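TASK: fixed-backbone design
INPUT:
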C-alpha cells in the first residue's frame, strides 16, 4: 500500500492575495468624468487599475454616486449609502458648512447648539417635501440624538473641533509673538520678499447689488433660486514684493452654461468646482500643485531667483495640512490672528471687492450708453458668471504691486515701500466713491440716491455669517447649473466657437470699422493710432485664420486617405521592395 502523503499546506500570504481596490466617492466622480469626456471603458479601467466590469458597474450607479458627491462633505468616503434618509444627508452637509463658517467667525459652539441647529435645518429641508421617499419610508422623525452626533463627527472628520470654548476674539498677544517668530523664520530660510507668499480665500456674492436698490428688492421677492445669493470663493495669493498670482475661483458647477465651449484651462482664473462653491482640503491641494507651484516657479525663473519659497496660510477648516513640495516651506498662522497680521486680509480682499463692485456698475453704465432701449433689469439679468470672470480680470490689472506690498506692513514692515496713494485704503476708498457716482448715473430706486454707506454695507455682507436660507441654497445639488451634455473634445469646442467662416467674418468687420474711422475722423493721426491698435489686437486671430485656411486647403488630401477602399489590397511579392510612404 502506498504510503500516505501529508496533505500539502500552503500558508496564506496576505502579500500574495489580491487586494480589493476601493475608490473614494471623489475618485469615482473623476472616473465618471473621464467616461463623460469620451474615454473608452478599457482606457479608464487601465488608468485606475480596475476590471472593465467594475468600471461598468460604477457607470451604472452614476446617478447615486453624483448625488452622494453633491451632498457629501467627506469626499474620502468609499461607499454610497443608499439606505440613508436623503434629507439627513443634506442636513449633515449643510451642518458641516455651518460649523466651518461659525469657527471662522469665532462663534461659540457646543454639542447642544449643533444638535439644535441640525433639527432646524432638517425641518427646513423637509418643509416642502416631508416624505423622504419610498426607500426611506421606515425612518422616524430626525431627533439629532447624541448617538447621531457622535457618528456625524466621525463621518465628517470633526474630531478636532473644539466644541466647548469661549467666543474667540482676535488674539493680539499671539499675533505679536508670531511677528517675532516670523523674523526668525525669514533669517533661517534666508528668504527674499519675492520668495514669501500669503494665500487666503474669500466669499464673493458675484451678482449682488446694494440692498436699497430696486434690483435687489425685486430679486428678493422671487421664489426659488435668488441670483444675489449665488456665491463663489476666490482664492488670492501674493508675495511681499507685491506680485499677485492668477487667482483661483471655486464655483458650484463644473460647466455653467455661460462658459460652454470655453477651455477651462485658459480662463482669467484657475477654475475649480465644488457643489457648495467653498474651499475644501482637496481643492486646496489642487490649487497648491496646479496653480501655486507652476506660477511661482515661472515667476522666480524670470526673476533669476532660487526656488526657495515660504507660503503663509491660516488654519481654516478647508486648508489641507499635509501639503509638501521640495523647496517650499508652509507656515500656518496662529488661530485668531488673521484679521491682525495676515497680509492678504489687510485690505487686499476689501480692495478687490470694492473694485469688483465699481466695475459691475461701470458695466451697466457702458451698456446704458450703447443701447437706445436700455433696461437696467434686462442688462443685469445678462450679467453671467462669464461676465464675472471678465470683471475679475480687469480688477487684477487695477490692483497695483504697491497696494499688495503695503498689505505686509504689520507682519514685515521693513520691506514695505513708500506707497503713498496706493495703499489698500486709498484704492478701496477711491473705488467706493466711483461706484456711488456710477450708480447715480444709472438712476432708479436705490441707485439715484446711493451713498458710500450703501456700498460699504454691500462689501461687508461678504463677511456675514451664513443664514439658514444660505445653507439650504448651498447644500442643494449644482445639477441645475450643469450643462448636461458631455463636454466636447478640444477640437470640437474650437469648431463650435471660432470656425473659419466666423474668423473671416470678424476680420471683415474689423476692416470695415477701420475704414469708417479713416473716412469720418478729421484727425488722421488719431485714426492711425486706432487702426494700429486694432491691427495689434487682431494679430493672434489673423494667425489663427491663416492656419485654419491652410488646414482647410489640405482637407481633401486627408479625406482621400480616410476613404481608403475596404476590400483587401493585393499583397506584394516576396521579392518586391517595400518603400516607406515618406520616400515615395
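OUTPUT:
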Amino acid at each position: 500500500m502506498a504510503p500516505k502523503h501529508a496533505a500539502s499546506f500552503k500558508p496564506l500570504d496576505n502579500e500574495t492575495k489580491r487586494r480589493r481596490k476601493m475608490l473614494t466617492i471623489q475618485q469615482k466622480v473623476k472616473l465618471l468624468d473621464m467616461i463623460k469626456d469620451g474615454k473608452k471603458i478599457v482606457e479608464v479601467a487601465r488608468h485606475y487599475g480596475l476590471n472593465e466590469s467594475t468600471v461598468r458597474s460604477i457607470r451604472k450607479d452614476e446617478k447615486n454616486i453624483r448625488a452622494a458627491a453633491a451632498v457629501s462633505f467627506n469626499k474620502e468616503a468609499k461607499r454610497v449609502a443608499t439606505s440613508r434618509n436623503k434629507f439627513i444627508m443634506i442636513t449633515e452637509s449643510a451642518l458641516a458648512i455651518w460649523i466651518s463658517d461659525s469657527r471662522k467667525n469665532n462663534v461659540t459652539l457646543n454639542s447642544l447648539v449643533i444638535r439644535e441647529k441640525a433639527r432646524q435645518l432638517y425641518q427646513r429641508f423637509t418643509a416642502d417635501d416631508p416624505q423622504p421617499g419610498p426607500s426611506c419610508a421606515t425612518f422616524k422623525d430626525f431627533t439629532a440624538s447624541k448617538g447621531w452626533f457622535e457618528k456625524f463627527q466621525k463621518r465628517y472628520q470633526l474630531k478636532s473641533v473644539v466644541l466647548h470654548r469661549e467666543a474667540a476674539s482676535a488674539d493680539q498677544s499671539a499675533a505679536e509673538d508670531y511677528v517675532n517668530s516670523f523674523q526668525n523664520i525669514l533669517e533661517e530660510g534666508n528668504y527674499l520678499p519675492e520668495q514669501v507668499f500669503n494665500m487666503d480665500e474669500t466669499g464673493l456674492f458675484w451678482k449682488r447689488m446694494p440692498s436699497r436698490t430696486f434690483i435687489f428688492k425685486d430679486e428678493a421677492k422671487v421664489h426659488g433660486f435668488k441670483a444675489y445669493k449665488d456665491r463663489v470663493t476666490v482664492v488670492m495669493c501674493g508675495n511681499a514684493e507685491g506680485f499677485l498670482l492668477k487667482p483661483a475661483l471655486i464655483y458650484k458647477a463644473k460647466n455653467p452654461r455661460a462658459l460652454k465651449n470655453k477651455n477651462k484651462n485658459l480662463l482669467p482664473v484657475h477654475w475649480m468646482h465644488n457643489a457648495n462653491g467653498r474651499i475644501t482640503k482637496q481643492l486646496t491641494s489642487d490649487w497648491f500643485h496646479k496653480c501655486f507651484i507652476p506660477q511661482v516657479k515661472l515667476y522666480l525663473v524670470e526673476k533669476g531667483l532660487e526656488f526657495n519659497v515660504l507660503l503663509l496660510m491660516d488654519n481654516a477648516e478647508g486648508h489641507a495640512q499635509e501639503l509638501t513640495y521640495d523647496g517650499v516651506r508652509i507656515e500656518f498662522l496662529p488661530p485668531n490672528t488673521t484679521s491682525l497680521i495676515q497680509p492678504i486680509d489687510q485690505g487686499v480682499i476689501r480692495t478687490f471687492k470694492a473694485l469688483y463692485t465699481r466695475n459691475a456698475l461701470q458695466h451697466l453704465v457702458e451698456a446704458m450708453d450703447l443701447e437706445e432701449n436700455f433696461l437696467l433689469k434686462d442688462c443685469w439679468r445678462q450679467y453671467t458668471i462669464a461676465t464675472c470672470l471678465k470683471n475679475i480680470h480687469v480688477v487684477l490689472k487695477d490692483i497695483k504691486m504697491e497696494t499688495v506690498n503695503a498689505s505686509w506692513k504689520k507682519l514685515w514692515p521693513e520691506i514695505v515701500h513708500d506707497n503713498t496713494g496706493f495703499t489698500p485704503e486709498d484704492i478701496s476708498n477711491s473705488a467706493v466713491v466711483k461706484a456711488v457716482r456710477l450708480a447715480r448715473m444709472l438712476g432708479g430706486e436705490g441707485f439715484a440716491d446711493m451713498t458710500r454707506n450703501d456700498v460699504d454695507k454691500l462689501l461687508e455682507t461678504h463677511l456675514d455669517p451664513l443664514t439658514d436660507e444660505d445653507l439650504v441654497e448651498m447644500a442643494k445639488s449644482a445639477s441645475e447649473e450643469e450643462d448636461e451634455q458631455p463636454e466636447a473634445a478640444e477640437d470640437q469646442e474650437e469648431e463650435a466657437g471660432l470656425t473659419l467662416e466666423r474668423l473671416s467674418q470678424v476680420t471683415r468687420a474689423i476692416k470695415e470699422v477701420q475704414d469708417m474711422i479713416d473716412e469720418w475722423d478729421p484727425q488722421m493721426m488719431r485714426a492711425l493710432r486706432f487702426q494700429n491698435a486694432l491691427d495689434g489686437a487682431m494679430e493672434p486671430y489673423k494667425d489663427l485664420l491663416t492656419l485654419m485656411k491652410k488646414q482647410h486647403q489640405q482637407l481633401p488630401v486627408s479625406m482621400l486617405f480616410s476613404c481608403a477602399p475596404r476590400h483587401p489590397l493585393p499583397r506584394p511579392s516576396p521579392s518586391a521592395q517595400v518603400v516607406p510612404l515618406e520616400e515615395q
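COMMENT: The longest helix spans residues 524-562.
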